[in-house]
Amino acid sequence: MAFNRRLHLYLDKARVQTYPNFVVTFGMGHHTYLNRELASKAPPVEPDRSDRMVELNGVLWLLDAVQRGDLSAERMRKLLVDASAYLSDCCQVCDEIFDEWPKLDANQRAQLEQWERRSASLTAESHPYTLNATETKIHRWDCGTVSEAPPPVYPDRHTYAMRAMYPFDFDDYDSSRSARRITPAEATAWAAKRKRPPRCRTCAPILPTVTSSEASGVASTY
Ligand SMILES: [Zn+2]
Ligand SMILES: [Zn+2]
After folding, report:
1. Closest by CA position to 116, among listed 149, 90, 158
2. Residue 118 lies in a domain
3. Which residues form the domain of 105?
4. Most buried residue, 18, 45, 141, 192, by CB count within 10 Å?
5. Distance from the CA of 32 to the center of ligand 1, in angstroms?
6. Whether the predicted model's global pTM rises above the 0.90 cut
């Protein structure tokens, strides 16, 4: 992953020189390995930038300014350190969603509010059933073995970014799928696609389309 940063040289109050697209690459693949190898043999540098690479042309441009006396070495070092910092002040993964984060954050909160409004509006009459997450078994709405889960809301950008980037590292990686409260019409449509619609043995829901003889015994769950 690479970023373009703008470098400004403030020569004096009237003159500013800008290097518009100074490329910073964050350690990926063999670069990370190589840089760590080199860094482990090199004297320590603070702050540690062993996983960053920067554009040589930009560095030469800065050195030219040092040579001309327009820029101090101290200021040049600060420019390089600042330009190679994480935008997010956190990590590479957070940088990936840095620009989108306000929108993503607002979205997840809006989804939760939407879920809360929907949840409050459901009744035993309007949505008498719950389908499990994989939609393979139907329950009564009040069955204790299954419930509609709220959409996840991650408290901070880092958690959100890590969850989005490495979903399988999280126990809740499948939480995008949740059980779902459904209407009698939806239950009928779901059951119509199955020969023997699997019903929960615990709550033994009676489906709208089931005839009285079938309703007396709970179907196999498989
Ligand atoms: Zn059940
Ligand atoms: Zn982070």
Report:
1. 149
2. yes
3. 101-215
4. 141
5. 51
6. no
